[in-house]
Write a structure and sequence with these properties.
This protein is of the alpha+beta class. The protein has a four-stranded antiparallel beta sheet, covered by helices on one side. It is built from six helices and four strands. The longest helix has 18 residues.
């Protein structure tokens, strides 16, 4: 009969527990989002833009799950893709009155966002999320790809 020391069982148990805790947020699914970022180097986004995006969405009678400033962009999360598409159009029209010279870029977010609240969202790891996934939506010059602009 094989017998192992107690500390080896403890290490195995701790590793399994950490693995379980690490994967739990992935069971919540993904949510569609709209990402607003600066279209020009001279324009910086701040909390004022968050309020502006919320106001545009209220005027369009669209209800986001949340709107918040994340890094260099403002993200608005929605419950379904139909609302996401309507929100993208409304935000884009409100923030860019001159379509030939846009000050802001508005894109459907391809970043997977787990449906968890509070601090757990900051610790969730979703495959395909993060900067590398976001860069896939932009070309080498930092502009939206044609596939994103068509949507």
């Amino acid at each position: 009969m094989n017998r192992y020391p107690l500390w080896k069982y403890a290490i195995l148990g701790v590793a399994l527990l950490i693995g379980l805790l690490y994967t739990v947020p992935n069971f919540y699914g993904e949510a569609p989002a709209v990402q607003v970022s600066s279209g020009k180097a001279t324009i910086k986004l701040d909390n004022g833009m968050t309020a502006r995006v919320q106001k545009v969405l209220e005027e369009a009678k669209l209800k986001p799950d949340y709107v918040q400033l994340e890094g260099l962009s403002v993200k608005a999360r929605f419950g379904d893709t139909d609302t996401q598409l309507k929100a993208k159009d409304a935000i884009s029209k409100a923030l860019n009155p001159d379509a030939n010279d846009p000050s802001y870029r508005c894109a459907e977010s391809g970043v997977a966002q787990p449906r968890v609240d509070g601090q757990a969202a900051g610790h969730a790891h979703v495959p395909g999320s993060g900067p590398s996934r976001r860069c896939a939506l932009l070309d080498a010059g930092g502009h939206e790809s044609r596939a994103d602009q068509a949507g």
